[in-house]
Amino acid sequence: MLRGEALRTQTTSPYRLAVVLSLICLPVFFQYSLVDAQIRTQARWCVINEREGRKCDDMVMKIKQREILNRTYPANYVGKQYAALPEVSCVLGSDQFDCMNKIFSDEADLIQLETGLSYTAGQYYNMLPLAAEKYVDGTGDEGLDFFVVAIALKSNPSVNFNTLAGKRACSPGVGQAAGWIYPISTLMDAGLMDIAECNVPVKSAANFFGGMCAPDALARYYNPFGNNPVTVCNNCKGKIPQRCTINDPYADYRGAYDCLANRDGDVAFVRHTTIAQAIAFGNTSLTVDDFELVCVDGTRTSVDQAAQCNWGRVAAHIVMTSAVRDQDLRKDYSSLLTLLSLDFGKNGPSYDLFQIFESSLYERENVMFTDETKALKVVSAIAGGTRDTYYTWAGDDLRKRLIVLNSCPIQQARWCVISPYEMIKCENMIMAFAAKNLKPDLNCIMGDSVLDCMDKIRVGDADLITLDASDVYTAGKLYGLVPIAAEDYSGSDNTEQKYDQYLAVAIARRADSYLTLNNMKQRRSCHSAVMSASGWIIPVDKLIETGQINVLDCNAYLAVSQYFSKSCVPGALHDYYNPKRTNPVNLCEACGTGGPDRCQRNDEELYYGSSGAFRCLTEHGGDIAFVRHTTVRENTDGRNLADWSRNRRSDDYEILCGDGTRGNIDAWDRCNLGSVPSNAVMTAGFKSQAERNIFWTMLNFAQQFFDADMNPDFPLFDSILNHKDLIFQDATVRLVQIDPADQDYNTYLGPVFIRAMERHKNVDCVTGAGPRLVSQSLLLLLSLAALFCYARLCNDEV
């Protein structure tokens, strides 16, 4: 009994309980710790084809075999043994970009990359270098780069630097430093190669050369719109799906050499050791004396003069990993690479088992590593550790070449914005576009209003703005602007219209069931903006058409103010729309912002825009809102997280139909006030078609990167800070290029909407006293004409 009592006392003690629980949980803890350790100590090497896969598998097998044989470790190696280092395994990717993505997604860890592609990996996939290939023996920093050369057959003397236009070119691959960045940028910088399209140097090269084999030129990364010229692949040799990819027989340095040697090209861009390596590897009847180097000074020379005749000097290939890997793990990766290099290198103790820097067993040179490699050197030990990032490893020269490669005839695209909130989004756009190296460089210009922006673009102080359909009319008619891109809200190509449209609708609270389109008099109204298509032009036109308002003296503002008891019509008191300062103040009495920002025609007014007009309705600023047909859905049922809309339900609102009935918010196809052309991006009419195309290309690339609303980098078609429709409508799915033949406000808007705009300008001629005065005057003139003719006839008879 005492023993039991003591046991209960012990087990109920907090200290004792903690000990017992720790003993129970310890095995589980160690189990999960071992799992974590196992995951943490993987070294998954990403390979891009079957040959690399075989060599990687052999490397894994030979590591295990040398451990079983208990081989001694290299004498000059100080560090962990294989058993204490990450375990190597092999992961197959379809190409380098797939491998980069796998490493970014933690599906792989290591890859060897050429310097140009390593820059891409660091810039877009957050990768960093671990170890560099070293091309000479020794422990110093020599032998960590190579020369870029252009080679031609000695039997083809017509090829020189100044005659390359129209010649056939062989490239190891698009994006590579030696095979692409250096030669293409050099030709551009010399003024020999024109820039065909900003952000698409492949098109410039295609226009310059008479034919090419440029592997990866049609890959999605370099061909996002699928319209790169196929001539960049005309001289490739592979069969689908390898044709014109990094696995084409004419890809890589040896492939570019073969392309030239087989007379499928006139010039090849390779590294200075490629010819000697290819001849040493065999399977060619040519000798070194059959080739010459093409120098940038217009001369040609022997292939042993690369130091004097080259197109640039490029840093060595490097092994990379993700920058988010644990620092200790990255150190282990570096130790592993050092050990592999010393153990399986030329003079390593396990060289007889596996030759890590040789590829003769795999039917191709440069498998996993370039065959000239003597050793791998950890980048933290190079130049005092100052070259341990992708940026510093590539060096200033390559970055300068990239600037030339991505140069654009237009330096800046200046976007005009009309509020501090649009400016914030525009500044975020600048950073996002720059991160993707989009050209031209984006800049933001603040305008006082939409009209001020139109004028800035007209005189050349700004370039771009997105406008509502009614503003497109004003910008085109009065400021000479032209539309170049249209917002698309459906994403469907199966529409009857060439460009997307939306519907103007009237929304009311479901609880106000008495309210219809026929009894709105003396109610309160919410409008997206003065002279906006869905918020003013279409509904006011409908009120005139149905005889509910009578416009006198061309003053629609007075007529609307007398019809509704109060309204929020942002911009109604602006000088442009109110030049005589006679517009009634009740057009702004329902607005939600106080102070000088009240009733402004921008998003500083809380009730500006379609979402703002709907907010005006939800907060009982008005009884009816004139908005776009998608507005209610965009701001209810949790789709808008702003405080004012967070708990709004879509079924609390209804659409008012033209026949006096009401429908649910999705009944807009039958209950609408009219259709409106979508918003358009506009630029100055004096811009050439080439300049307009440059702006469009920038936008098109941008939406490829940033079209998703949940994009963590930057959502192009989403807004910020509880505001909606900044720069673009949030409902936008994509932008569509407007055909050059349609880049006129009349053509783009179409005759129906143009007539609505013209009617609104001339309301005195179609309503009120105007028609009666016209008909009376016409009757008087006809009567006078008849009397005159009668008098003439009588005189003639006399």
Secondary-structure blueprint:
Layout: H1 2-12, H2 14-40, E1 42-47, H3 50-68, E2 87-92, H4 96-104, E3 111-113, H5 115-125, E4 127-134, E5 145-153, E6 168-170, H6 177-189, H7 201-208, E7 211-213, H8 252-261, E8 267-271, H9 274-281, E9 291-294, E10 300-301, E11 312-315, E12 318-322, H10 327-344, E13 375-378, H11 390-405, E14 412-417, H12 420-435, E15 441-446, H13 450-459, E16 465-467, H14 469-479, E17 481-488, E18 501-509, E19 524-527, H15 533-545, H16 556-563, E20 566-568, H17 609-618, E21 624-628, H18 631-634, E22 653-656, E23 662-664, E24 674-677, E25 680-684, H19 689-706, E26 734-737, H20 745-761, H21 769-797
Parallel strand pairs: 1-2, 6-7, 6-8, 14-15, 19-20, 19-21
Antiparallel strand pairs: 3-12, 4-12, 4-13, 5-8, 5-9, 5-11, 9-10, 16-25, 17-25, 17-26, 18-21, 18-22, 18-24, 22-23
What is shown here, in short?
This protein has about 800 residues and is α+β, with helices and mostly antiparallel strands. About 35% of the residues lie in helices and about 15% in strands.
